[in-house]
Design goal:
The chain has about 220 residues and is an all-alpha fold. The chain contains eleven helices and no strands.
């Protein structure tokens, strides 16, 4: 474990953006392991080789840091999905399939760089902490609404009542690959976070998408 730097001005001598990213990396992991309530600022600072006062040069407090972790980890997912849906509106059915596969690849690439985000969301879901409402209202619900709108505008097999369950299945499959990586590592004797396993999961998701979003006639 890294020792905290004694001089609180040390963090300002290097690249502030690099320091900020290091803080976010550490905070993302600790929040995923312990949740917001169980994580102390001093622990984040120590793991990031800073003092607590140095950390406050970059973030106003633990809540601001938590929200910054979510923004870095989840906002890009929303951006990827909404941009893809906007593009798909002008495409043919065949081209929509290709666009959905490109979107899935982009989602997996992002989460592969932030594998603790899935675990963070799972932790808050399991503990039912106060941060769960923040995650749902601020981040997950807009993503889900975008996904359901995309389904309603396509020729997908799912009816209106089934679409929430279809979206929930996507959440389980995509986030679960990262959130449950330790279980899958033991179960299948392979590291789900290894590059070759990420590529394998991408191939699976492309095929899964073809089944999940198939026109009604193709799914009978």
């Amino acid at each position: 474990m890294s020792e905290a730097i004694d001089d609180p001005t040390t963090s300002t001598q290097g690249d502030p953006e690099s320091t900020r990213e290091r803080i976010l990396d550490v905070a993302e992991k600790l929040f995923a392991d312990r949740g917001l309530a169980g994580t102390a600022v001093r622990d984040i600072a120590r793991e990031a080789s800073l003092t607590a006062p140095s950390l406050y040069n970059h973030f106003d407090g633990k809540q601001a840091l938590y929200e910054a972790v979510l923004a870095r980890g989840v906002q890009p997912l929303f951006d990827i999905i909404t941009a893809s849906n906007a593009t798909a509106e002008s495409l043919s059915v065949a081209d929509r399939q290709a666009e959905s596969e490109r979107m899935l690849d982009a989602i997996m690439d992002h989460l592969a760089h932030h594998p603790n985000i899935g675990k963070l969301i799972q932790h808050e879901s399991l503990t039912g902490g106060p941060s769960l409402s923040l995650i749902v209202r601020g981040w997950i619900r807009p993503i889900v609404d975008s996904g359901q709108n995309a389904m309603s505008s396509s020729f997908a097999v799912w009816d209106e009542q089934e679409r929430p369950m279809a979206v929930a299945a996507w959440i389980h499959v995509i986030l679960g690959h990262f959130a449950m990586a330790p279980l899958f590592r033991e179960l299948f004797d392979a590291d789900p976070l290894a590059p070759e396993q990420i590529e394998r999961q991408k191939r699976f998701l492309r095929r899964f998408a073809r089944l999940m979003l198939a026109p009604a006639g193709d799914a009978d």
